[in-house]
Specification:
With about 140 residues, the chain is an all-alpha fold. It has one domain. Helix content is about 85%, strand content about 0%.
Length: about 140
């Protein structure tokens, strides 16, 4: 599976799991209703979908020009750190507003979520590539 079909399947699976996990984790950590954290998780997911599409399109364009083929551990770590760093910048204001907390509290929540998503993103992408194969940009 390649191209836009690959991106749609990847994003749909990734974000579906992320919405459920984020709703539960945020509700437990903030002691707020799941209906409130669920809305925030969906908004975060929409933000992530847009960022994911943009980031991965740019990453794969870079990868096609610079990669010798394959995706080693260092490249996977760099990919994950770049994506999650962008998410942190985008979601802190959303969490502060959505949970009615200070920016510092939202940053703390996001750092916790970041730790979860660093591991989740790495494992999900590794599993996705094993199930669906590498994208054309990583094949030589």
């Amino acid at each position: 599976m390649q191209g836009i079909q690959r991106k749609i399947v990847y994003l749909s699976l990734y974000e579906g799991i992320a919405i459920v996990a984020s709703t539960v984790v945020l509700s437990l950590v903030t002691h707020q209703e799941a209906s409130k954290t669920g809305v925030l998780a969906v908004l975060a997911s929409v933000t992530a979908l847009i960022w994911n599409f943009v980031y991965n399109s740019l990453f794969e364009a870079w990868e096609a020009r610079h990669s010798k083929g394959g995706r080693g551990l260092q490249l996977r770590i760099a990919h994950t750190l770049g994506f999650e760093g962008g998410m942190l910048l985008l979601l802190v204001p959303l969490f502060a507003f959505g949970l009615d907390v200070t920016a510092a509290e939202a940053l703390g929540l996001q750092m916790g979520m970041l730790m979860f998503f660093l591991i989740y993103s790495f494992l999900f992408t590794l599993g996705f590539d094993r199930v669906f194969g590498l994208p054309a940009s990583a094949q030589r």
